[in-house]
Amino acid sequence: MEKLAIEGGYPVRSGKIYYGRQWITEEDIDAVRSVLESDFITCGPKVEELERGLCEYTGAKHAVVVNSGTSALHCACIAAGVGPGDEVITTPITFAASANCAFYCGARPVFADIDPETYTIDPESIEAHITERTKAVVAVDYTGQAVKVREIREICDRHGLVFIEDAAHSIGTSYDGKKVGSLADMTCFSFHPVKTVTGGEGGAVTTNNDDLYKKLVLAHTHGITHDEALMEDAPHEGRWVYEQISLGYNYRMTDFQAALITSQMKRLSFFSERRKEIVNRYNEAFAGLPEIIVQKEIPESDTTRHLYVIRLNKELLKCSRAQFFEAMTAENVVPQVHYVPVYWFPYYRSKGYEKGLCPVAEEIYSGIMSIPLYPKMEDTDVDDTIHAIRKVVENYRKA
Ligand SMILES: *Cc1c(COP(=O)(O)O)cnc(C)c1O
Fold this sequence. Notes:
By secondary structure, the chain is of the alpha/beta class. It folds into 2 domains: about 5-20 and about 270-395, Aspartate Aminotransferase, domain 1 (Alpha-Beta Complex), CATH 3.90.1150; about 25-265, Aspartate Aminotransferase, domain 2 (3-Layer(aba) Sandwich), CATH 3.40.640. The chain is built from 13 helices and 15 strands. The chain has helices at about 25-35, 45-60, 70-80, 95-105, 125-130, 150-160, 210-220, 255-265, 270-285, 320-330, 345-350, 360-365, 380-395; strands at about 60-65, 85-90, 110, 135-140, 160-165, 175, 180, 185-190, 205, 225, 245, 290-295, 300, 310, 370. Strands 1-9-8-5-4-2-3 form a 7-stranded mixed sheet, sandwiched between helices. A 3-stranded antiparallel sheet has the order 7-6-13, with no helix packed on it. The longest helix is centred in the C-terminal third of the chain and has 20 residues, at about 270-285. It is globular. It binds pyridoxal-5'-phosphate. Pyridoxal-5'-phosphate (PLP) binds next to helix 3 and helix 4. Pyridoxal-5'-phosphate binds next to helix 3 and helix 4.
């Protein structure tokens, strides 16, 4: 057996690799440079081009581009009419923004439990948490796998709820042959550098609904409109007239970020294929390793995986998750954990949330970690990751 690096042995590789990273090419840089040298570095044609491109790619009728995935979620909640006294149902195994968006609107996030095999929100648990105050569901395509869209759509329709899909992980994924972005009432994307397509920062909301679209546009730019059809005070004095008709924010994206994202979108199908290739190699490697449990996928989801999450089979291993994590880090294959249940955080505690709300989510959380997955990984990086996991498993295997 190979001696673990954490116990003084040689690490499987000399340079560290991490769970995710961006891939920027010369073409991307040229796209940004040409915007910086142009007349409009914000509120210009590149933002519109990206909005059109997202509609074309996802099949959605409308897209509103914003400055982060978090802003996208906030705008979606505003457009959904979420307000004080309302409740928004989401999953605890997500980035905090999926739940914070409810608080931004004066509403309360409510946590439904997850499916123990797919780790995405469990539709039955959504249904069990609906009250007369529930306004919307924020369902997260965790790791890139589409949520159970059909079941969630049916529940939202039956209870008159707005279905918001947090697709920060899932650009490129399809459900039943339809691209994520065209499925829910509103779909929120993120272009943070760890995500599949990046603009440094950035986000977008897509929708097929004209009314929601108008509200999204207002929310991301101060509630100000230049559209006379929307103005309340007529007649107008001249062409300079605009009106603020609701309270919005400045959540606009710059044109150079939009150009970077449009340039990256050209390689999305390549990114998807490479991610799928790596996922398949991991799946094959771990199929013969009962100590490692892999995430299950629903057949409807054709997934562009953002994260590869392994779950330790605690019955077969004598180490803790933390020991496994440290041993992997010492091998220079640095994992991360996605995510600490959101309601465990001190802020949430201060709002009255307690541990134990979602037992399945807490149990899954206690055994998971994300291993490197990004298109720029070389095959040797994939080999090193598999090697490190095998090595750590062999050293910590029971009996
Ligand atoms: C990254 C992420 C967000 C927030 O996106 P930002 O662009 O970082 O604001 C929201 N939800 C999930 C699930 C995410 O992973």
